[in-house]
Every structure is written in C-alpha cells, then in structure tokens.
Specification:
73 residues, mainly alpha
C-alpha cells in the first residue's frame, strides 16, 4: 500500500506497517469515543468506503432501507 494506490476492497494487501498504523487509529478512536475513527483519518475513510459498498449491495438486492443502516458492533 506504500505506492499511493489505496485498494479498500483488497484487505489482504495491507502490509505490516499499515496494520500497525490502523491498530493505533483503532486505539485512538476508542479513547475518544469515535465510532468510525477520527474524522478524516484512514480508518474513517476505510469504514465509510465499506458502509457505502454495503449500502450499494443492499440497494441492488432490494433489501434494507436508508434508515437504521448503521452498525452498532
């Protein structure tokens, strides 16, 4: 992932340095109570991408609505 291209769909691509960085962002998000990571952070963008992709898949399958589509895990 060091080449500047971010492939959010290929999570196996994350190298050790990226994984360590994400672990730090997870810890910071938990300390501050940010459910989706620090606003503007890599973690935040990664979660937003996943949410968007899930919403698109639900829309295509005809399932779910835009209300209550947030995860509480």
């Amino acid at each position: 992932m060091k080449d500047g291209s971010t492939d959010y769909d290929n999570y196996d691509e994350a190298d050790e340095e990226t994984q360590k960085h994400l672990q730090k962002e997870f810890a910071e998000a938990e300390r501050h109570g940010w459910a989706e990571g620090k606003p503007g952070s890599f973690l935040n963008r990664l979660i937003a991408h996943g949410n968007k992709k899930t919403e698109e898949e639900l829309r295509k399958s005809g399932g779910g609505s835009s209300e209550g589509s947030t995860s509480s895990s």
